[in-house]
Design goal:
The protein has a single domain, classed as Glutaredoxin. It is globular, with a radius of gyration of 12 Å. It is of the alpha+beta class. A 4-stranded mixed sheet has the order 2-1-3-4, with helices on both faces.
Length: 79
C-alpha cells in the first residue's frame, strides 16, 4: 500500500473536502498540519515550490490541490 501524507491547515475547506473524499474511499492518510509543523511546511514548499494546501504526498509524488482525477489515477481507484 502506498504511503500517503496530507499536508493541511485547520482552516482550509479544500483540505476538509480532500480528507473526506479519501476517507470515503477507505484510503488511510497521515495528516500533517503545516500551521503547527514548520519542518513539514519547509518540506512541502521545497517539494512543490508552493505554500498552498492541500498537498498530497503519495509515495513521494506531490500533488497540490484537490485533483480527484489525478488522485484516482495514481491510487488506481474509481471516482
Amino acid at each position: 500500500m502506498a504511503r500517503i501524507r496530507l499536508f493541511t491547515t485547520p482552516i482550509c475547506p479544500y483540505c476538509f473536502s480532500l480528507k473526506r473524499f479519501l476517507q470515503e474511499k477507505g484510503i488511510e492518510v497521515e495528516e500533517i498540519d503545516v500551521s503547527e509543523n514548520e519542518i513539514a511546511l519547509e518540506e512541502m514548499i521545497k517539494e512543490t515550490e508552493q505554500t498552498t494546501v492541500p498537498v498530497l504526498d503519495i509515495d513521494g509524488e506531490f500533488l497540490v490541490g484537490f485533483d480527484r482525477k489525478k488522485i484516482c489515477e495514481i491510487l488506481k481507484i474509481e471516482d
